[in-house]
Structures are given as structure tokens and as C-alpha cells.
Design goal:
226 residues, alpha/beta, Transcription Regulator spoIIAA, Pectate Lyase C-like, 6-stranded mixed β-sheet, 5-stranded mixed β-sheet, 15 strands
């Protein structure tokens, strides 16, 4: 009878993928992983660093077990763990994802010194005055004037955008990128809704709202229309 392999090692152009059986016991899996890496991996001082992605399938692993798997791989001189992926998430993580996927609608004027922070997308019907701040885990849509600070994708989402009916911000942040509106921006020069996003050079740019259809095609799931 053929023995079931609990660890499959696949080479890709981006490094190694370790596919781990999600049906066997964890100690058995860890032992076989160490044995397979000893057999298949040849290391020397001149070898380049190799990226490794670990896939554990439908197995929930604790943070401690995840760290143990990483340590088994890292013990091989030139292997670097990029990711440990599981199809199973905790209830808390699922609730967090749900919160971040929601659109929060707020009707208010954010005045100087005030901070409005939400975990998902923000739809603000009102202005953000100079000195006011709005922060969102996702996108920010302002049906009014943005004259203060807007920070979208605060958790690191570089696909997030900021849109406003009147875009005259004192500062815009998307993920870890920061940009201040040009000095020549004025109410008289801009009469249409605009958006800010991170471009291919990792810079924040401000453009017409119409560009989002091509730059962020997944920003909406609506499929209707003529």
C-alpha cells in the first residue's frame, strides 16, 4: 500500500510552495516536513535566498504552530518564509473581514480637531473642514468638500481610494503613502468630483473620478446597466 505523502514540495519561478496535508496529525506533519526539507534541499554559503510559501489547506493552526513551521523552514540556511496560508480563519478574523467590507454612511460636518474613524468604506455626506480628519480601513467617498485630512486604507490597503465632490485637501494618505494637495488647487478651477489613488510609481495622484472604472474595476460588483 502506497504511503500518503503529507508534504509536497513544488518549485515555481517565485520560489518553493510547500503543500501540507490537512488530514494527518500536526506532530506527524511537522516531522515529515523536516525530513523532506533535509532530503530535497541542498544548501551552501553561495546559494541565493529562496522564497517559501506554506499552504496548510483546511487545517487551523495556532500562532504557536505557525511559528514552529516557519522555524523548521528557516533552519535551512537560505530559505525564507514569505507566507503561511490556511483556508480556515477564526471567528474574530471573519468578523473583522465583515466589518472592513461594510460601507458606513455618515451625515456630518467634520470640523477642526474632530476625527472620524471607521473600519470599512466611508460614505460621508458633508464636508471635512481644515483641521478635520477622516480615517477608513477601505475607501473614502465624500459628498462634499475635502479640505482637511483623509486617510484611506489605513491597514495597508494600497488599492483604496479617496473621492470628493471638491478635492482641496490639506493632506491625503493611502496606506503608508502621503501626499499634500498642490498649492494651485482652488475651488474655481475644479468643478467635478475627483479621486486620489496610488499609481504604478507608488505615488498618490489626483484625477477625474471617471478613471476609477479602469484603474479599480473591482471597486464595485454592480453588473447592470445598458
Amino acid at each position: 500500500m502506497k504511503k500518503i505523502q503529507n508534504v509536497m514540495i513544488k518549485g515555481t519561478k517565485n520560489g518553493l510552495v510547500l503543500q501540507l496535508n490537512d488530514q494527518c496529525s500536526y506532530p506527524e506533519l511537522k516531522e515529515e516536513l523536516n525530513e523532506k526539507l533535509l532530503i530535497h534541499h541542498v544548501e551552501n554559503e553561495d546559494s541565493p535566498l529562496i522564497s517559501v510559501r506554506i499552504q496548510v489547506g483546511n487545517r487551523y493552526i495556532t500562532p504557536e504552530q505557525e511559528e514552529e513551521l516557519k522555524e523548521v523552514v528557516r533552519n535551512k540556511r537560505n530559505l525564507v518564509v514569505e507566507e503561511v496560508h490556511s483556508n480556515v480563519i477564526t471567528k474574530e478574523k471573519a468578523e473583522q473581514i465583515q466589518l472592513e467590507a461594510q460601507i458606513y454612511s455618515v451625515t456630518s460636518i467634520i470640523r477642526s480637531g474632530q476625527v472620524l474613524e471607521i473600519p470599512g468604506d466611508l460614505l460621508l455626506v458633508g464636508d471635512v473642514n481644515p483641521g478635520g480628519t477622516v480615517i477608513a480601513g477601505g475607501n473614502i467617498y465624500i459628498m462634499g468638500a475635502l479640505k482637511g485630512i483623509a486617510h484611506a486604507g489605513y491597514g495597508g490597503n494600497k488599492e483604496a481610494i479617496v473621492a470628493a465632490s471638491l478635492m482641496v485637501p490639506s493632506q491625503i494618505r493611502i496606506a503608508d503613502c502621503i501626499n499634500r494637495a498642490p498649492d494651485q488647487y482652488s475651488k474655481e478651477e475644479h468643478h467635478e468630483m475627483e479621486c486620489a489613488y496610488i499609481d504604478d510609481t507608488n505615488q498618490i495622484v489626483i484625477d477625474r473620478l471617471q478613471v476609477l472604472k479602469h484603474l479599480r474595476p473591482n471597486i464595485t460588483s454592480f453588473k447592470g446597466g445598458y
